[in-house]
Amino acid sequence: MRLDSWIDSSLAGIWERFKDGYNAASSFAMRFRLTGWTRLFNELSSEALTLGAGGLVVMYMLALPAFLEVDEDKYLTTGKYSVKFLDSRGNEIGKRGINLNDAIPLEEIPQVLIHATMATEDRRFYEHFGIDFIGTARALVANANAGETVQGGSTLTQQLAKNLFLSSERSLQRKIKEVFLSFWLESRLTKQQILKLYLDRAYMGGGAFGVEAAAQFYFGKSVREVNMAEAAMMAGLYKAPTKYAPHANLPAARARANDVLSNLVEAGLYTRGQVHNARLNPARVIETRSTSSPDWFLDYAYEEIQRVMEGKGQYVLTARTTVDLAMQQAADNALQSTIRLEGRNARLKSGALVSMEPDGAVRALVGGLDYGESQFNRATHARRQPGSSFKLYVYATALENGFTSKSIVSDSPVSCGNWSPKNYNGGGGSGRSISIGDAFKTSLNTTAVDLSLKAGRDKVLEMTQRLGVEGVKKTCSMALGDTGITPIQHTGAFAAFANGGKLAKPYGILEVFNSKGDVVYSRERDEPPAPQVIRPRVAEQMNQLMQLVVTEGTGKKAALEFTHSVGKTGTSSSYRDAWFMGFTGALVTGVWLGNDDYTKMNNITGGSLPAQTWSNFMSVAHQSKDIATILGLTAHPAQIAEKQRLAEQRRLEPATAAAAPGTGDTPGRRASIMPELTREALKRTATALRKAGGVPPEAQQVPGTSGAQQPTSALDRRAETIGAPGQAIAGTRGRP
User: Nearest 10 degrees: CA dihedral of 640, 644, 645, 651?
Assistant: First the structure.
């Protein structure tokens, strides 16, 4: 009884103490209970802190990709090199490098040009912190009223962020990156530094970057000397350099300059009377060089210069390249014709084309539709899904691991984990047995995935790396080309099958000379021989499979009348990417079509517009019908007839035959003769250098004149080697 009483009393006591404690705590808490407006303020503040914390996390997630684009070692410089580029025949084709843009201090740039830039591009430049919300709202209203884009909302800082770190693709992701990078630039640099960088980096058309380069290109003078009319014309170029370039469209350029002069008045920087003389006397443009500059190729070649010259201590350079200007023009025309004629119906706005010799020498490169609108080089930097054109690597791996071109495979359902591929017709496989050639030419997805699993996905991955393709990931759907790769690397991989299985790493530089004319880089001398990465027998069998694609399969539109062509079509999911990759005995060419913002095209497959574009270009690019036979194929009747014609010509007229087409600068062989004017210029330069160095008169004999004295400088030796008629340019090779 005592135990029971103790338990009851203890429990009762605990309960009473609990109630007393609860009441005391409640009384204490009542002192902090908020009512009325104080409670509303507290609730709003609490919610704001919660949302703010979540917003900070989201902003960090959005900002992180933008900051990963920043290279703090390079964003304040344009690079160390100043390079003059020559084509394969020695003709100057363009320049790139530091001397083109930032050689003039901001204090020496005329105020009228700075005012014209700010009045046209960003009137509130000194009032915002990277993003002009007022200007953006004003532009949105103006565009809504006009029903089209008539004003841009991007500030100078935003445009600079894009020029320094980002591509010109039109996507929400790029705009978000642009915003964060604008804030970053404003926090790291002064307004004057931002303005100077913008004036140095803006593309001004004609291959010129920066106001100094533009002034030299359009007016033949330093930017220090430009007047108001010239400044207005230059400031009008920022919006659309190609559209308003005075060489391309002088009336449009002058109309745009008038708009800039009006902007100067509206912004209150000048009066109508001050700009009146500039309206009456518009800027006069001089002809300095061809406007058909191979800008896409020059950007690629400049990147290669920085790679091959790293650590050599030479910065003022002349580089002889692999580009063929006729083929470059043909490539531009082929891509532009396709997009401009078919783009609206196909919902297609962009593309790229790369053409090279079987050893990797890039002869033509197009990185987009309009270099003035966007300098992002899709040929070298866009990583797009190759679709079924990736099956080249899968089938080549299978041929290396027990399969042959006569093997029987199955078009049956296959699974990898919980994923199963579907064929283009939507089916999961018919279950029938077919030849490996039929599976390849009709591009069956089920068979490709099955082969990747049987041969081993790790081996397929190793095959891509062996052929020079970077970034491919091991996935269940890798056989269907689900990883983005660049067009130039993809084309280089196909070139390995064109040359019999040797690595064909793309290149655009043959030789580099320093300011004294000495050879500081020669591909022939400084690069190791290409290794054999695929057995010739595997290359032969793949070439036979790729011929079926053109003759009987998905790539029939790529057939050529004068030679055999082989290749592979590719289409990514939802028609976002379309490819045709293929080659003849002389040229390897890859074509990609798509949209920068990854929007879907209108049912465009690799066998439609890409194959047509490829055929249009290749029909023009082959200037000679004397084309080598593709490994594993029989000679084309046109090639047999051409060889018979050349043999008969050599028999009857040896001298004529030596200079006949097919023995010179065909797509399969690089030029062997530098133009006479270039050769003579090199000789004169060499003579001047010798005189300046005190060389005795008897040692100043110019190559090609009377006397037996040999050249005494490296520049002389280059003039002798490059320019002597009938001699091959040092550093070149014959057709593989």
Answer: 160
Q: How far apart are CA 72 and CA 202, in angstroms?
A: 19
CA dist 40 and 43 (Å) reads 5
Amino acid at 287: E
Output the furthest CA–CA distance in the chain (Å, rounded). Answer: 139
Which 3 state secondary structure label does DSSP give 82? strand
Strands 566-571 and 362-366: unpaired
Q: pLDDT tens digits, residue range 384-423?
A: 999 999 999 999 999 999 899 889 999 999 999 889 999 9
Token pair of 354 as six digits: 């790369």
- Tokens representing 446 are 């089920």
Torsion of CA 142, 144, 145, 150, to 10 degrees: 50
Write the Ramachandran bin of 220: left for phi over 0, alpha for psi from -120 to 50, otherwise beta. Answer: left
How does DSSP classify residue 660? S
SS3 146: helix
For the beta carbon of residue 436, count every other beta carbon within 10 angstroms: 22
- Cβ contact 220:288 at 8 Å: yes
Q: What pLDDT is stored for residue 167 in this prediction?
A: 63
Rounded CA gap, 350 and 596, in Å?
7
Quote the CA–CA distance of 650 and 492 in Å, as a whole number: 35
* Residue, of 201 and 581, whose pLDDT is higher: 581
Lowest mean pLDDT among 41-45, 179-183, 593-597, 674-678: 674-678
**Mean pLDDT, residues 587-607 taken together:** 95
The amino acid sitting at 265 is V
pLDDT at residue number 245? 84
Mean predicted confidence (pLDDT) in 243-271? 90
* Confidence band for 318, pLDDT divided at 50, 70 and 90: very high
CA dihedral (521, 523, 525, 531) positive or negative: positive
**Cα dihedral 68, 72, 76, 81 sign:** negative
Going by C-alpha positions, the residue among 335, 296, 346 that lies closest to residue 576 is 346
Neighbours of 573 (CB within 10 A): 13
Q: Cα separation of 619 and 627, whole Å?
A: 13
CB 248 within 8 A of CB 254: no
660 near 654, Cβ under 8 Å? no
Quote the Cα angle for 210-214-217, to 5°.
145
Residue spans of alpha helices (H) in 71-132: 111-121
| Inter-CA distances, 682 with 89, 222, 665, 676, Å | 14, 27, 22, 10
Distances (CA, A) of 635 to 470, 495, 586: 34, 19, 13
* 3-state helix, strand and coil shares in percent for the chain, rounded to the nearest 5: 50, 10, 40
Q: Residue 288: its pLDDT value, please?
A: 60
321 in Cβ contact with 508 (< 8 Å): yes
The gap from C-alpha 161 to its chain's centroid, in whole angstroms, comes to 18
Strands 82-86 and 316-321: parallel
Mean pLDDT of 368-375: 84
CA-nearest of 274, 237, 269, 273 to 115 is 269
Which segment of 104-108, 117-121, 464-468, 673-677 scores lowest on mean pLDDT? Answer: 673-677
Mutual angle of helices 609-621 and 325-346, in 10-degree steps: 160
In what helix (H) or strand (E) does residue 22 lie, and over which residues does it extend?
helix 2-30
Q: Are the C-beta atoms of 566 and 550 separated by less than 8 Å?
A: yes
Q: For the segment 714-733, what is each residue's pLDDT rounded down to a tens digit?
A: 333 333 333 333 333 333 33
DSSP conformation class of 206: T
What is the pLDDT at residue 9?
A: 86
Amino acid at 480: L
Residue 46 to residue 32: CA distance in whole angstroms: 16
> What SS3 string covers 54-76?
HHHHHHHHHHHHHHCCCCCCCCC
CA distances from 288 to 93, 208, 277, 291 (A): 12, 12, 26, 9
